[in-house]
Each structure stands twice: as C-alpha cells, then as structure tokens.
C-alpha cells in the first residue's frame, strides 16, 4: 500500500513537472511569435481608447459608472482599459505583454484543470488557443485582447479553484471559484458560455462526491448578477447594438450567420495562415536568418516534445470528445441568437478551445506510444507554421500602426495648430483606407483595419500625436461613403479638405461645384474624386 502511494506521488510529481515545462515552452513560443518582429504598436480602437479617451485619471474614473453607455457590457474589461492599458499607452508593448501572459496562463489553467478531470493531452489545445494566427485579432490587438485574454485567465482560475475544492474539500476553493467566476463573466459574452460549459462538465465529472448543489448555485448567482447588470444598462448604446436578440426571421438569420462562419473557417482562416505565413517566412529567413529561423524551429520542436511528454496513457473517452464539440459549438452559439449579423474573427475565437480539445482526444484512439510520437511530430510542424504565420500577422499590425501615424502626422503638418485645436472646425479626409494594400493579410471587418477610414480611430490618433485633448472633427471618406455635408461645406472658413493619395501621402484639396455635385481638386488642378449629391444634405464620395 505504501509503495502504491509513493508511486502515485511520483507519477503526480512527474505530471506537474511536464506541465510546467509545457507552460514555459508555450510562453516562450508565444513571445517569439508576437515580439520577434518588434514591439506592439497601437492600432484601431487602441488610439481612441488608450491614447485619447482615458488619458487622465479623473476622466477614466468618470467614464466608469452605471448606467453607462461605453461599459454597458464587459465591465471588468472596462476596468482593465481604464486602469491598466490607458496608463501604459506610451509603453503599450507592456500592456500587450500583460495581455499575452494572461492568455498563456489562462489557457494553461483551463487545460490543467481539465486534465485533473480526465483529459489526456494538452498540446493541440494550447496550440489552437495560443498560437493559431487567426486568433491574433482576438488576443493580440489590445482593444480586443483585453476582453478575451483576461476572460481566459479568470475562467482558468475559476476552474482550478473548483477542481481544488473537489480534490481537497477546502472551503477557500469554493470561495475563489465564486470570485474568479464572477470576474470572468464580466469580460466577454462568448466567454460566459464557455465558462458555463466547463463548470457543468467539472461538476458532472465529480458528481459521485455529491457536491453538486453548491457550485451550481454559485454559477446561477453569477449569471443572474451579470444579467442584472446588463438589464440596468439596457438602454445604453452597446447593449442595443450588440446585445439584442434576434427579432427578425430566425431561419434567415441562422442561414446568414452560418454562411459567415463557414466562410471564416473555410476561407479566411486558411488565407490568413497562408498569406501571413509567407510574410513571416520572409522575415525569419531575411536578415539574421540563421538566428531567427533557428529560434522559431527550436521553440517549435520543444513545444512538440513538451506536449508529447504530457500525453496521458488512457483509452479514448466519448465524454471528453463530446466536451470538445460542446466547446466548439458554445464558442459560436451567441452569433446565432443575437441580432447582429456582423461576425468578426474574434467572435469565433472561443470555438478554438473545442477544436484543440477534439484533436487531443482523437489521438487517444492510437496506441499510447504512437500517440506521443505523432503528437510530437505534428505539433512541432504545426507550431512552426502557426508561429511563422503569427509573426506575419504581427508585422501587418505593426505596419498598419506606422501607416496610421504617417498619414495623421502629415495631416497635422498641413493644418495649423489653431485649426487642430478648434473643436468647432471640420476636417474632411478623402481617400481613406480601411485596409492598407501593403499588408498581406485578409480584408475583413476589423481585421488589421487602418485609422484613415474611421472617424473615432483617426481622431484618437491625432489627439495622441498632437497632445491636444480636443481637436476638430475629422470626417474620413472611403469609396462609396455617404455623409451629411450640407450646410457645413458651404460655410467659408469652417471646413478644410485633404486627400490620401495612393502612396499614403496627404495633399490639400478643395471642392469645386460641378452642377449638383462637387469635384475634389488638388492644388495642381487635378481631380482626386467627386462628391455625388444624394439628397439636399448628403453626398456620396467616389474616386
């Protein structure tokens, strides 16, 4: 008996050591993927949220109240925005490092808790959650990563606490489960679904101990609490635009959403991996090729070997496979029941947990030795490909930020300090670009979007660059945009007009009436585009 106890302790110690090694290697490979090409730079909402809106502590505190339009949903993400990301904006790479660390630790805590509840592998799960290049919109772009990575962290912490309570019967485990779970539901709506599924699985897996009621009551209280918070903010803009349920024909809504999701998985994710993989490969095989390629290859190989060491010897479990399917579906289900048909890549990210778990479980159908060998080989190759493509994605984000700053700095130089700081003036920027053609990644919704095509983003960028807290309104125009321009454009001295050229240089332009329309004319007399009259106040921009 004593020998069996000792053997069990040694086995558990070996398992903990292997898991610790895998955690360290995962951290190393994520850092290589995200920082090999340079430090993180702000993009899209980062400029607006962290470089403009919350620049002073008093303003940050004032913005966080209930009811509140900006933080009507995801209240704990708002706290991170205000008190972590915004103060670090001038050193935003630190905020990115913290978010990446939250993702790594959160994913590890989730899979470690699941392994305590019968899951065999861990490598494909961590590879899908932490390394998949299509996941960088959710976990790298800071304004989105704050909602996602911290949600992962607190889901993992809650599951670990619940598992600890089941293993030790110590009350502090149940208390921490309640605290961490309450925090995790305040970050991101899809994370709530994943948290519910994982909690129910953990309770079910430990049902023989009959300690079922307490965690289920705590879970119900957490969901009720966040539901009450949402209800208190029901009239706020974000709840109305993002939180409303389907009100139209559900069958039609289901078909539209299903087609979008199918396109994301069948076209966009493979395209991101291929395009960004090419850019990443050029990067690591460019300057200092031996060092860069050697680093990526080394951490990929270590990741595959560490994952193989963590594979447990057991038979295939239909229950674990079902859990993987439930996580995959759970990561997508809100898209089908909420009214919005806008499905950015980050809204499918949580389904990656299910994909990784399914892959790990299917390999248990093989003999134990074959499972470990195949895990090591496949994950070494997959990690190399994902890491390389992730480097390409990070480069695209970096270049986009640099283009944003370049265009905005030119705009500032062409204008005058008096005009920039006058909030009663209007600046119109034609030729804005949602996506810069130099970037290799896909053009889809918020995926690596430029600020020159978005009013709030470029205003935040300008305010950060100039240091002026209240600048004039910058109205951006991309091809086909229609905006109300009358009577402002006819008021002398109120408006200034600029055009973003193909090479991203910015030039002054003026408007010349052409019947009911206006030509957009450069200083050298050439036409940059036109404003086509739609009605008495609105015009469509064409170029």
What does this structure look like?
The protein has two domains: about 400 residues, no CATH class; about 130 residues, no CATH class. It is built from 20 helices and eight strands. Helix 6 packs antiparallel against helix 17. Strand 6 and strand 7 form a beta hairpin. With about 550 residues, it is of the alpha+beta class. About 60% of the residues lie in helices and about 10% in strands. It is globular. It starts with a helix and ends with a strand. An eight-stranded mixed sheet has the order 2-1-4-5-6-7-8-3.
Number of domain modules? 2
Low-confidence stretches: none
* H/E element sequence: HHHHHHHHHHHHHHHHHHHEHEEEEEEE
Class by alpha and beta content: alpha+beta
Number of helices, where a helix is a run of at least 4 consecutive DSSP H or I residues? 20
What integer is the average pLDDT?
90
Spatial strand order of the main sheet:
2-1-4-5-6-7-8-3
Q: Strand percentage, roughly?
A: 5-15%
Shape: globular
Distance between the termini: 82 Å
* Gyration radius, in Å: 26 Å
Question: Which sheet architecture does the biggest sheet show?
Answer: 8 strands, mixed
Helix content: 55-70%
Number of strands: 8
């Amino acid at each position: 008996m004593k020998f069996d106890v000792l053997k069990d302790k040694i086995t558990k110690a070996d398992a903990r050591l292997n898991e610790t090694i895998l955690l360290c290697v995962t951290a190393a490979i994520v850092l290589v993927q995200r920082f090999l090409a340079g430090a993180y730079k702000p993009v899209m909402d980062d400029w607006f949220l962290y470089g403009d809106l919350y620049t002073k502590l008093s303003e940050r505190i004032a913005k966080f109240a209930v009811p509140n339009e900006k933080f009507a949903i995801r209240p704990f993400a708002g706290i991170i925005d205000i008190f972590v990301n915004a103060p670090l904006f001038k050193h935003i790479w630190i905020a990115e490092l913290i978010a990446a660390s939250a993702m790594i630790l959160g994913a590890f805590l989730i899979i470690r808790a699941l392994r305590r509840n019968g899951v065999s592998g861990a490598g494909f799960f961590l590879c899908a959650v932490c390394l998949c290049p299509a996941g960088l919109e959710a976990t790298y772009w800071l304004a989105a990563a704050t909602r996602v990575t911290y949600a992962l962290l607190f889901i993992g912490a809650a599951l670990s606490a619940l598992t600890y309570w089941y293993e030790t019967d110590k009350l502090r485990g149940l208390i921490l489960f309640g605290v961490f779970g309450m925090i995790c539901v305040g970050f991101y709506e899809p994370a709530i679904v994943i948290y519910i599924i994982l909690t129910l699985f953990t309770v079910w897996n430990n049902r023989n101990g009959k300690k079922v009621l307490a965690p289920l009551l705590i879970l119900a209280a957490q969901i009720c609490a966040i539901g009450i918070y949402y209800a208190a903010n029901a009239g706020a803009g974000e709840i109305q635009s993002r939180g409303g349920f389907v009100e139209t024909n559900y069958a039609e809504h289901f078909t539209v959403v299903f087609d979008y999701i199918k396109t994301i998985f069948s076209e966009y994710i493979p395209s991101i991996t291929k395009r960004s993989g090419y850019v990443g490969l050029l990067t690591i095989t460019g300057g200092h090729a031996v060092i860069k390629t050697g680093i990526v290859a080394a951490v990929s190989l270590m990741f595959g070997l560490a994952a193989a060491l963590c594979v447990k010897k057991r038979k295939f479990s239909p229950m674990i496979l079902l859990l993987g399917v439930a996580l995959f579906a759970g990561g997508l289900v809100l898209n089908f029941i909420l009214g919005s048909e806008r499905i950015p890549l980050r809204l499918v990210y949580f389904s990656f947990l299910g994909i990784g778990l399914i892959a790990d479980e299917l390999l248990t159908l093989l003999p134990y030795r074959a499972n470990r060998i195949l895990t090591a080989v496949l994950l070494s190759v997959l990690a190399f490909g994902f890491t390389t493509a992730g480097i390409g994605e990070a480069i695209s984000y970096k270049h986009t930020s640099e283009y944003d700053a370049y265009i905005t700095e030119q705009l500032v130089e062409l204008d005058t300090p008096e005009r920039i700081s006058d909030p009663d003036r209007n600046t119109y920027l034609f030729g804005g670009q949602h996506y810069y053609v130099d970037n290799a990644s896909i053009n889809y919704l918020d995926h690596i979007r430029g600020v020159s095509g978005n009013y709030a983003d470029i205003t935040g960028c300008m305010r950060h660059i100039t240091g002026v807290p209240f600048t004039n309104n910058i109205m951006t125009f991309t091809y086909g945009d229609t905006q109300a321009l009358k009577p402002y454009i006819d008021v002398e001295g109120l408006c200034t007009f600029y055009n973003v050229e193909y090479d991203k240089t910015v030039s002054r332009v003026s408007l010349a009436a052409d019947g009911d329309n206006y030509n957009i004319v450069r200083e050298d007399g050439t036409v940059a585009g036109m404003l086509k009259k739609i009605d008495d106040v609105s015009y469509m921009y064409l170029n």
